[in-house]
Structure formats: structure tokens, C-alpha cells
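Annotated sample (chain length 393).
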Amino acid sequence: MVGQSVKMALKSVLSNKMRSFLTMLGIIIGVVALVVLVSLVSGATTSVTDEINNLGSNLLTVSVSDNKGKPMKLEDLRVWMEEDPIALTAPLSQLEATGKYGTESDSVQVHGTTAPYAQIQKLEVSRGRWLKTTDVDQVNYVAVVNTALAEELVGYKDCVGESISLNGMRFTIVGVLEEEDSAMAAMMGEQMTAYIPYTAALRVSDQISSEVTTFYIASEDEKSMDRAEARVKALLMERFDEDEDAFTVINQSEIMDALGSVTATLSLLLGGIAAISLLVGGIGIMNIMLVSVTERTREIGIRKAIGAGRGVIMLQFLIEALTISLIGCLIGILLSWGILAVISAVGGMAFGVNGTVALAAIAFSLGIGVLFGLYPANKAAKKAPIEALRYDG
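Output written by the structure step:
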């Protein structure tokens, strides 16, 4: 009986192709909105999460907002590396400088730091070397550049030994970093960056002082992360007169938790907007099913006259509503897959249909079909056979 109802439903849908398509349009749009938007958020979240995880889970970021007359110095960070379970420390000063090579000139992001920074941030050098402690101590004018700067400013990757100018000061390139292949870099483009000794950065810009206000700390391993964070906070509290507002300590897990909270909220918001589109599509299904019931009144009367019960009639129209909703959903998922493929090709970041979201869209579409198909099906089932046979449209 169900099989016969499905055949009749498909026949009804195919006999009015344009009307059926327009009826499905609301479901199609709703499914595309739901699947594409949530999949984009999910894909971007996964990409960012992977990049954060690549930095390791034993990283602390410290920012000092009020030094209480006791500014942090490079020597303090070196002393802290002797503390258990702190393994590495590195300061970071950032400025934007004018970089020049020959006749070429462009804006360059300059990072002043020390030798441990590469290990903390897991930076890999493809050519040459990274900064050394002696470079910092002797204020050597050397720089490690990323691939973007090597290719766009100097003109080629293997540029170790070349000299570039940063705000009028000449630096010798001693290393070139591995090309960044992250999805975010692919989408936003890799910015030209030069890493120079922290002490040299003080001379490139008068906006940078010898006081360290931002620095990174790596614990010995993931298991000692909590102990390292507690020790760092204790050292900072002791230095800054027990004022916890004078500094901020952020660990990777806090960033991950915040990211998860934001993306979960965003997914719910976008999913809710898409669900409204699906509800509008459901109203369209109910409207066309009511029209179909009216058009087929005599058919209903004939079927009832030859013995079809109320349940059979109701099941027929309910299956027809479900068929329209499900076909619209499947078309929407296929379109979503195509749209995400195009976005991936253009944007450089891999996006795919989120399986969970696709299943949710199918379940929601079936629910819409049942919810908005019940009233027309019930109306058809309640028609009296004699009145239905008398109906002349």
C-alpha cells in the first residue's frame, strides 16, 4: 500500500513539474542556507582550530598592562627560563616598517624577538638560519624573512645574504622561513614579515622601548602546562604588587574554549535563520497540497466509493507532501555541495558538506513535510464520498 502511494505521489509531482518545483523552492533555499552556512562555519572553525593546535598546547601568552614601576626586561625572561617547569620564553615587539630592496619598496610587518621564539611558535627555516642569542646580545642587524617578503620584495626565495632596508636601516637576511600553507594564509594572503633581534627592533622604531610588555612562554610539556601557568602568575603577582589586573595570561585551552563558544553560537544563529526558510517552504507545501486536494476531490470520492478507507486517503496525501519535501531537500543538498566546491576552489580553503548538518536538514525537511502535510491529508480523508463525487470543480 505504501509503495503504491509513493508511486502515485511521484506521478502527481511529475505531472505538474513547474508547480512542484516552485513548491519545493522554499525547501531548497532553506536547505542550501542551512547546509552552506553551517558548513562554512564548521570548516573555518576546523581550520582555525588546527592552526591553534599546531602551536601546541603548552603555550602561554602574557601581556603586561601596568608595570608598577618594575618593567620586564630581556634579562628577566632569561632568568624565568630557569624556573621549573618553564622551558622557553621569548618577547615580541611588533611594528610596521617601510621595507626596501633596490628600487622596490613596500610595507613590512617587523617582529622583534629572541632565539627561543621559533621553537615556541614552531617556525621552520627553509634556507639559512634563525636568530641566535648572540644576535640579540650584540645587536646584530640581521633578519629572518618569510616567503612572501623574499618573493615579493627581494624577488626570489633563496635570498640569504641579501640586504634589505627597514625604516632606513640595513639588515642582512640570514634565513627564510618555510612557506606558510595554512588555509587562513591562503584566503587572506601571507603578509610580508621580517623577524629581527629584539634589541635591533628598539633602534628601528622609537615607538618600541626596552620594556617587554608581550611575551610567550612554553612549558616543558603538555602535562606541566597548569603548573607553568600557576608559576608564571605567581611570579607576576610578586613582581606587580599582587595586582592581578596588571597583567593577562592566556593559554591555548582558553582560546579554544572561547572559539568553540563563539562558533557554536554562530552555528545556532545561522541554523535558526535557515530553519525559518524551511518553515516558509513548509507553508508553500501545505498551500499546494490544499490546492491538490481540491483538484482531486472526485478522485477521492471514487477511491472511497470502491472501498478506500480514511487512513489510505490520508496516507496518500501525506506521502505526497513528504515526497515534495524530501526531493526539495535532496536538491538543496546537491546544490550546497556544488556551492561549497566553488567556494573552496575560489577561496583556497577546503569546505565540504557537514554530514551531521545534512542529516539534520533531511530530518527537518521530513518533519516539515509531515507537519504541513497533515492538515491537507486530513482534509482529504474527511471528505464524504457522495459530496466528493458530486463535486464538479
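Annotation: Residues 2-51+258-390 form one domain.
Annotation: The chain has a mean pLDDT of 84.
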